[in-house]
Amino acid sequence: MVSLLGIPPQVLFGQLLLGLINGSFYALLSLGLAVIFGMLNVINFAHGALYMVGAFVAWLLLTYAGIGYWGALVIAPVVVGLLGILLEKTMLSRLYKLDHLYGLLLTFGLALILEGAFRHQYGVSGQPYPIPAALQGGQNLGFMFLPNYRGWVVVASLVICFGTWFAIERTKLGAYLRAATENPTLVQAFGINVPVMVSLTYGFGVALAGLAGVLAAPIYQVSPLMGTNLIIIVFAVVVIGGMGSILGAIVTGLGLGLLEGLTKVFYPEASNIVVFVVMAIVLLIKPAGLFGRER
Amino acid sequence: MTVASNSTRVAVRGPAIGTALIAAVLLLLALAAPFVLYPVFLMKVLCFALFACAFNLLIGFAGLLSFGHAAFFGSAAYIAAHTVKEWGWAPEAGLLAATVVAGLMGLVFGLIAIRRQGIYFAMITLALSQMVFFLALQLPFTHGEDGIQGVPRGLLFGLFDLSQPLTMYYTVLAIFLAGFALIWRTVHSPFGQVLKAIRENEPRAVSLGYRTDRYKLVAFVLSASLAGLAGGTKAIVFQLASLTDVTWQMSGEVVLMTLLGGMGTLFGPVVGAGLVVTLESYLASTSLPVPVVIGCIFVVCVLVFRRGIVGELMHRLSKRGH
C-alpha cells in the first residue's frame, strides 16, 4: 500500500487505533461526569481517582484472590459504585444547597486522598496486568495489525456508552432521571424517592469510571497516577462537548481521541496539548460547547 | 439624620483604630521574625501568602474560582529564573518581566475562560494551566524535569546584595507588602465594590449598566500578575524554577490555603499560607503521605469549616458585637 503524505499506513492506522482507544476512555469518563453533573450539579473531580481505584481493584483481585479479568469486570465497578454511594451519602449530600464550587472542592480533596493513599501504599511505578487469555493475539486486517484486546476495548466501551444513552433517553427509569434533573421537587411530589435516585446516579456514574479502569488495566499499567492526568483532559472534553447531551459527550470523546492520534502522527510535539487548544478555539467560537446549550 | 451618621462614623472609627493597631503589631512581628525563625522558611511563607492573596482577589471578591493559578505562578518563576540566569538581568528587571508575562498570560486565559461561568470557569482554567504544564515540560528553555537551577540572586538596584539572607528577607517582605497594599486598595475601591456586586448577583450588575466581563477580566489580569510576582520572587529566593510550581497540585494548594484561612477575608490567605507551608515542612520529616493529609484538610474545610480561620474569627467577633 502506498504511503500517505510520507507516512507509512501502519503508523497512521496504529496511531488512529491508539487514538480511538484513548477516545473510548474519554467517552466513558465524560459520560459518567455528564450523568453526575446532570443530576447532582457536581463536577466530580474524584472521577479520575475512582477510575484508578477500579483498575487497582482488578489488580488486587488478581494478585490476592486469584480472580481474573472477567470477574474483575463485574466486581470492580460494583466496589467503586458502592464506594461512590458511601461518599455521596456521607459527604456530597451535605453540599447540595451551597454553591456548586464546593462540590468540586470536596471531590478534589477526595481525589487527593485516594491518589495519595494508593501512592503511599504502592509507589508511583505501574503494576503490570496481563491481557486475559481469550483476548490475546490479534488480527491482520491487511492494512494494519489489530490486537484483539484493543479491538475488544473499543467495542465494549461503545456498547456501554450507547447502552447508557439508551437507558437514559429511552427507558422509563431514564425518563424519571431526566425529569428529576429538570425539577426534583415536582418529581418527589409524584412519589419518587429523589435522594435515593441521586445516590444511585452518583454510584452509577463512578461505576462507569471503575469499569473504564478495569478495561484500561491491561493497556496502560495500573498506577496511582493514571487517573488524575486523564481527568483534566476529560474536563476539557466536557467543556468542548458541552454537558447538555449524553450523545454529545460520547461523540466528542471519541473524536478528540482520534484527533490526538492524528496529531501524534503529523506533529508529535503538540499531541499533549491539542485537546486544550481545541477547547480554547471552541470557547471562542461557541462558548456553550459543540452540543451544549446556554443556561 | 446627622446624629445617625455621626454614630455610625464613631462605630466605624473604633474598629479602624483596632485594625491599624493590629496591622502595626503584625508589621513589627514581620520585621523581627527573621531573628527568631529561619529566614528561608519565612520567605517561602511570604511568597505563598502573596500568591494566595492574589488568588483570593478572584474567588473572594469576584466569585471566580480559578483552578489554574499555578500556570501564572510557575511560568513567572521560569521567566524570572531565565532572564536573571541566562540573560544576566538584574533581579528587579527579572521580577518585572515575570510579572508582565504572567499578566499577559492572565489576559489570554481570562479572554477564554470568562466566556463561561461558575464550574465551567474552574474547569477551563484548570485545562489551560495543564496546557502550560505540558509546554513547560517540552520547551527547551525550561530544561524539562531539571528546571532552571542555580539562579544567581544578584544585586537589587545594583546596591543591595540579595545573597545576604536578611537583605533578601526584607526585599521579599517589601514585595509582599506592596502586593498586599495593592490588593487592599483594589478591594476598597469603587472597582472592588463592582467586583463584589458581580460576585453577589451578576445579572443585576449587568442590568445596572456595568460591563461585568471587563471587570472580571481586569481582576483576572491583576490576580495573575500578582501571582506571577509571587512566583518570580520564589524563583529568586530559592534560586530555582521547576515543574512543581506549574502542576495542578500547586493550583490546588493555593485553593486550600485560601479556603483554610478564609475566602473573601484579606488576612485569611496569609494565615492559610503560613499554616500549609508549616504543615508541609513538618510532614516532610514524618512518614505520613502529604497529599492524604492535605486532602483530608480540604474535605474537613469544605464540610464543616467553610468560613476558614479568619472568616470564623470575624464572624464570632461581629456576633459578639451585636
Summed up, what is this model?
The complex is a heterodimer of chains A (295) and B (322). Chain A has helices at 9-40, 47-65, 69-90, 100-122, 148-170, 172-182, 184-189, 194-216, 226-241, 246-266, 274-285, and strands at residues 138-140, 145-147.
Explain the overall architecture.
The complex is a heterodimer of chains A (295) and B (322). With 295 residues, chain A is mainly alpha-helical. Chain A has one domain (12-226). Chain A contains 11 helices and 2 strands; from the N terminus they run ααααββααααααα. A two-stranded antiparallel sheet of chain A has the order 1-2. In chain A, a hairpin with a 4-residue loop joins strand 1 (138-140) and strand 2 (145-147). Chain A is globular, with a radius of gyration of 19 Å. Chain A starts with 8 loop residues before the first helix and ends in a 10-residue tail after the last helix. Chain B has helices at 2-32, 39-61, 70-85, 91-113, 118-138, 165-187, 190-200, 202-207, 212-238, 248-261, 268-283, 290-304, 308-321; strands at 148-149, 155-156, 160-161, 240-241. In chain B, the strands form 2 sheets. Chain B has a two-stranded antiparallel ribbon. By secondary structure, chain B is mainly α. In chain B, 48% of the residues are buried. In chain B, strand 2 and strand 3 (160-161) form a beta hairpin. Chain B has a domain at 39-246. The A-B interface holds A 43, 91, 94-95, 98, 100-102, 104-106, 108-117, 119-120, 228, 232-233, 235-236, 238-239, 269, 272-273, 275-277, 279-280, 283-284, 287 and B 65, 67, 112-113, 115-116, 118-120, 122-124, 126-128, 130-131, 134-135, 137-138, 248, 252, 255, 259, 289-292, 294-299, 301-303, 306. Chain B: Keywords: Cell membrane, Membrane, Transmembrane, Transmembrane helix. Chain B: It is found in: Cell membrane.
